[in-house]
Design brief:
The chain is α+β, with helices and mostly antiparallel strands. Helix content is 29%, strand content 30%. It is built from 11 helices and 27 strands. Strands 1, 2, 3, 4, 10 and 11 form a 6-stranded mixed β-sheet that branches. A hairpin with a 4-residue loop joins strand 1 and strand 2 (17-23). Helix 4 (151-162) packs across helix 10. The protein is globular and about 80 Å long. The termini are far apart.
Length: 514
């Protein structure tokens, strides 16, 4: 392998499993196995007395002391309230994610040489806070994060480079902990993202939990006692539930013996029973597909191909559901577990080729030369203002959208607002995320105090510019036009600028632009 090509990596930082891929000498992505020879590394961390274990070793150690093992960190990344305290140390989700990334980096470097730059994948529906937190985790692991790419986009890039993909395509990405649906237009090697939707709390982990509960119920009914008597029991049967789920993708029935305090109990679960248990989750993916189609202005019969991504997409009822919805069998032409990491490596190569083409070896450049894609903004972003309600004639607090969801990236939008009253000395500028005009139904990401010159009349213009880059990170600029005073911000991840309550009378807000 050409060691120059390994300086750039694509990383799938997954809820259940993670993987790292690099480009070979001709620009083809390939997975780099970890130190144990595994192509996928469990996203698990175990804090032993003298060292930190990551991956399969961490999963195995948790049978000894489950309280010292951390899993499914990705569901908490960007959450400032999440803390894990072990041996007097407090770990954030970003710090824990950095341990997983560091393991991937070190294991890969032992085989292919230094890994300096990387693109890390995130679910398409991740907001600003989670994207920034993911980049921070990469930096803490010693990586220069040159980009963030949506997981369905990465998978589509790999599909596009591996097999014929054309027309309007839907990517169904059901992983260990998150679900994404993305619709895109593919023409040759040109790919344009149309829209995305998803749920960060929907994935294979939830299916495992349903099987786990069925085992608990069966044991309780048979013996009158609880199956789980300790955290060690829970850890063991969590793995048993995952194994049953996987087996039911190959067989119609699974039989096990449950060993609990009330003695051994025979447990049998059919595929039909399993499908009934997870039906509400499958239905939610259907609903999100319908929302995405509606946003794209499309019908199911407008979609020419459906691409499967994520290990949980192997479950037979998923294929059956999609076949019923679209009228054809979805494509599974690649390894659904590895497609995201492999596509991330392609994205990394494209990023470096655009930013520093002289650093890319000729073979890699030739392999990537014809691939082009356009991504979109996955959320609407706006600010709070105080327009006059046309019905009541009174001022109300409203959300004014500046960048609309599904706007092609990169993009920049500017709106002009006006101060509300004479002598207004400052404004509270709130950055929002969401589709509604009612402030109660949007996320208020952050609020900043913007000082203005004193002693001026009402109606002074304030220009607001939101810029969104290819990594789906946003920069906000607030400019007082008369004085030229500017407030420029990137959204924080540490909660240091918490949103403030909108004042009922609209004081210290802006008048909506006409």
């Amino acid at each position: 392998m050409d060691r120059m090509a390994t300086n750039i990596a694509g990383i799938d930082l997954g809820t259940a499993f993670s993987a790292l891929a690099v480009l070979n000498a001709i620009g083809r992505p390939q997975i780099v196995p970890n130190a144990d020879g595994e192509r996928l590394t469990p996203s698990a961390i175990y804090f032993d007395q003298d060292l930190i274990r990551v991956g399969t070793e961490a999963l195995n150690c948790r049978y000894v002391n489950p309280d010292r093992c951390v899993r499914w960190v990705k569901r908490h990344i960007g959450d400032t309230t999440f803390r894990k305290q072990i041996d007097g140390m407090i770990w954030t989700a970003e710090a824990l994610s950095a341990l997983i990334l560091k393991k991937l980096k070190q294991d890969a470097e032992a085989q292919v040489g230094p890994i300096r730059q990387a693109v890390i994948t995130v679910p398409a529906h991740f907001d600003e806070i989670r994207r920034r937190a993911t980049m921070d985790a990469g930096a803490a692991a010693g990586l220069e994060v040159i980009g963030i790419v949506n997981e369905p986009v990465a998978a589509a890039l790999f599909y596009m480079a591996s097999c014929p993909v054309t027309g309007k395509v839907l990517v169904y990405d059901l992983g260990g902990g998150t679900f994404d649906v993305t619709i895109l237009q593919v023409d040759g090697h040109d790919m344009q993202i149309i829209c995305s939707n998803g749920d960060q709390q929907l994935g294979g982990v939830d299916f495992d939990l349903q099987v786990f509960r069925l085992m608990e119920q069966a044991y309780q009914q048979a013996t009158g006692t609880a199956l789980i008597a300790s955290q060690e029991d829970r850890a063991r049967y969590e793995d048993e539930a995952e194994d049953i789920k996987k087996t039911l993708s190959r067989r119609q029935t699974v039989k096990k013996i449950l060993y609990g305090p009330g003695g051994p109990v025979r447990f049998e679960l059919s595929r039909e029973e399993f499908e009934h248990a997870i039906a509400k989750f499958v239905a939610k993916t259907e609903m999100l597909i319908e929302v995405a189609l509606d946003e794209a202005g499309l019908r199911p019969d407008d979609i020419g191909q459906v691409l499967l991504v994520g290990g949980s997409s192997r479950i037979p009822v998923i294929t059956q559901t999609l076949q019923k919805l679209f009228g054809f069998t979805p494509a599974c032409a690649v390894n659904v577990d590895e497609a995201v990491a492999l596509g991330a490596a392609v994205h990394a190569g494209l990023t470096v080729l655009k930013q520093s083409p002289d650093l890319v070896p000729a073979g890699i450049a030739a392999g990537l030369r014809d691939i082009r894609y356009t991504d979109v903004c996955n959320h609407s972003y706006g600010t709070l203002c105080a327009p006059v309600d046309k019905k009541t004639g009174k001022r109300t607090i409203a959300n004014h959208i500046i960048i609309r969801k599904n706007t092609p990236l990169p993009c920049e939008q500017t709106r002009t607002f006006y101060t509300l009253y004479d002598g207004q000395s400052h404004i509270e500028v709130t950055i929002t995320q969401g589709e509604d005009t009612d402030p109660r139904y949007v996320n208020k990401i952050a609020t900043y105090r913007f000082e203005l010159p004193p002693g001026r009349p009402a109606g002074m213009p304030v220009r607001v510019t939101y810029s969104y880059d290819l990594n789906q990170r946003m920069h906000c600029r607030f400019e007082d036009v008369q004085s030229g005073k500017v407030l420029e911000v990137d959204l924080p991840t540490d909660g240091s600028c918490m949103p403030q309550q909108a004042k009922p009378n609209g004081q210290d807000r802006l008048i909506q632009s006409v």
